[in-house]
Design goal:
It contains 13 helices and 4 strands. The protein is mainly alpha-helical. It has a two-stranded antiparallel sheet with strand order 1-2. The longest helix has 31 residues. The radius of gyration is 23 Å and the shape is globular.
């Protein structure tokens, strides 16, 4: 078999495995049934299609947006590689995939080519996500729909949320894992203008609405790609709009703000912790910051300076303003950006100003980032009812 044929077979196999994983994840989210359960049936699997199909549709359109524009500019590229994430019994949440990527086999020569290829994916994916999200909010089931998953909620009526998410309820039932899906500006706008307010799902129950959950995750992936850092799609857009020097400033500032916000959510450096726990928490966090800040490509001395400054600010914030909280989930992505992707965008071989149409599209892409951004995308908490 020819090398290209082997690659195509591998890519198709990855897509099939990703489809199976996302469908299984959809069943796990909505019905709490794992593919490993002995009573797992074909009907259980088919119930997950309402999640996997819209999610993979949006991700696929995103990647092929990059692909076709790359072909238009005669930049050699691969078809998408889908990245499956198999369901695991010990993981309470699993979206079934880590996204998809295409590989450019030749380098775009100009900033315009970089801009076009970078922006095409988010724009194409967002258009589809917008249509599917609109449909999802227009066709919400009645409030009683949630009772098929939680029949015990029915006794409390429409105000069940005031009871079942309380510490008292958790204590009575031996504790509970609370999963809350975040929101974004686009969802809020649809909730206010498109949806019947009585049917809008509670954030703690969003996983039982697979179509909306798939849209939310796809929009969040769009948001990640549009971060104005490095060679992410948003990095290409900002580089095209503002040039190399301004992009460098924007990317660095945004990267520092991201780590600052994430660090405010870390519980490991709280001055009120026991001395031993605090020592290991500080040591681990300093090590993390140092490796993350290597993405700024500074000297070792300056990297250490940024590390201790950021730690100092976080420690003082924890001491004087303990109520101020960030979202620790961003810390992993910040580390990946700093350690592996990089914060800066390499200069293009050919630099030329964008025309007015591209400038308008660039600002639209930045608006899409704002609409899709969620400060706390997923919140997990074990509620025991104990103080």
């Amino acid at each position: 078999m020819h090398k290209d044929q082997k690659r195509l077979v591998f890519q198709v196999a990855l897509f099939i495995v990703t489809f199976l994983c996302t469908t299984a994840a959809g069943t796990q989210w909505a019905y709490g049934k794992l593919v490993f359960d002995p009573d797992y049936t074909w009907k259980d699997f088919s119930n997950g299609l309402a999640y996997s199909i819209p999610l993979l549709l949006i991700l696929t359109v995103h990647e092929f947006g990059h692909y076709f524009v790359a072909l238009y500019h005669k930049v050699k590229t691969s078809l998408p590689y889908y990245i499956p994430f198999p369901p695991m019994p010990f993981l309470p949440v699993n979206i079934g995939t880590m996204g998809a990527v295409i590989r450019l086999r030749s380098k775009p020569r100009s900033n315009v080519e970089n801009f076009d290829i970078g922006i095409a994916g988010p724009l194409a994916g967002f258009i589809v996500a917008l249509a599917v999200t609109f449909y999802g909010f227009q066709t919400l089931p009645p409030p009683e729909y949630i009772y098929q998953f939680h029949p015990e909620y029915e006794q409390y009526g429409p105000g069940y949320a005031d009871v079942v998410y309380s510490k008292e309820y958790a204590k009575e039932h031996g504790g509970m894992l609370d999963v809350a899906i975040g929101s974004n500006l686009l969802f809020w706008l649809f909730e206010q203008t498109v949806a019947d307010p009585a049917r809008v799902p509670n954030a703690h129950e969003m996983m039982h609405y697979p179509l909306l959950l798939a849209c939310y995750i796809a929009l969040f992936v769009t948001c990640l790609n549009l971060l104005p850092i490095g060679q992410l799609d948003g990095g290409h857009v900002v580089y095209g709009l503002f040039g190399f020097k301004t992009h460098r400033i924007i990317a660095r500032v945004f990267f520092l703000v991201l780590i600052f916000y994430a660090g405010l959510g870390l519980p490991y450096i709280d001055p009120r912790l026991p001395q031993k726990e605090l020592f290991f928490g500080i040591a681990g966090y300093l090590l993390f910051l140092f490796f993350a800040f290597k993405g700024l490509r500074l000297s070792r001395r300056d990297t250490a300076m940024y590390t201790f400054l950021m730690f100092g600010v976080h420690f003082l914030m924890k001491f004087f303003f303990p109520a101020v909280a960030g979202y620790e989930g961003w810390i992993v992505f910040a580390f990946i950006l700093g350690r592996f992707i990089g914060v800066e965008h390499p200069p293009s071989e050919i630099e030329q100003p964008l025309d007015s149409n591209r400038v308008i599209l660039g600002w639209i892409a930045l608006l899409i980032f704002v609409l899709c951004f969620s400060p706390a995308p997923l919140q997990l908490a074990i509620i025991t009812g104990q103080e």
